[in-house]
Specification:
EC number: 5.2.1.8
Mean pLDDT: 97
Protein name: Peptidyl-prolyl cis-trans isomerase
Shape: globular
Strand order of the largest sheet: 1-2-7-5-6-4-3-10
Number of helices: 2
Domain PPIase cyclophilin-type: 1-162
Low-confidence stretches: none
Largest sheet: 8 strands, antiparallel, barrel
Structural class: mainly beta
Number of strands: 10
Enzyme class: isomerase
Order of helices and strands: EEHEEEEEHEEE
GO molecular function, one term: peptidyl-prolyl cis-trans isomerase activity
Length: 164
């Protein structure tokens, strides 16, 4: 279990090592390295998702490890409260940025092995603190340094705790 301590409160996440081992180990690695501490939720869309894990407060993008293989084809769905890796248009481009679904977003699920069909790999779920996630989703947003949907008040990950 992982606890993200944010400026809005704690979010407890359970990883799914069975169905998404590569993604879960990748997330855990970044947590162990302290990578997520002092990063922000930089993209928030109420009713859709909250995204974080890659930018500092001044919107500088942090340097990451190499991209991982996309495990969206392993059966996990983008349901409310699940956590998945963000990526570019290339299916196998996820590194550190993640998002938590605020709704059942089935259009993000795997439908085929094409660029548009690969989907976004779910690797865990929120087990406590969904109220915190929902509150983050309601944050007022705007444009900052060319990025849309950035919370006007910084929402930071202050600490990451790994619980065995």
């Amino acid at each position: 279990m992982i606890i993200l301590t944010t400026t809005y409160g704690d979010i407890e996440i359970e990883l799914n090592m069975d169905k998404a081992p590569v993604s879960s180990k990748n997330f855990l690695r970044y947590c162990q390295e302290g990578f997520y501490e002092d990063t922000i939720f930089h993209r928030v869309i109420d009713g859709f998702m909250i995204q974080g894990g890659g930018h500092t407060e001044d919107m500088t993008e942090k340097e990451t490890h190499a991209p991982i293989v996309n495990e969206a084809n392993r059966g996990l769905k983008n349901l409310t409260g699940t956590i998945a890796f963000a990526r570019t248009d290339a299916p196998h481009s996820a590194t550190a940025q993640f998002f938590i679904n605020l709704d059942n977003n089935d259009f993000l699920d795997h439908t085929g092995k094409t660029n548009s069909g690969w989907g976004y790999a779910v690797f865990g779920k929120v087990t406590a603190g969904m109220d915190v996630v929902s509150n983050i989703g309601k944050a007022m947003t705007g444009i900052k340094k060319g990025h849309d949907d950035v919370p006007l008040d910084t929402i930071k990950i202050n600490k990451v705790t790994i619980v065995d």
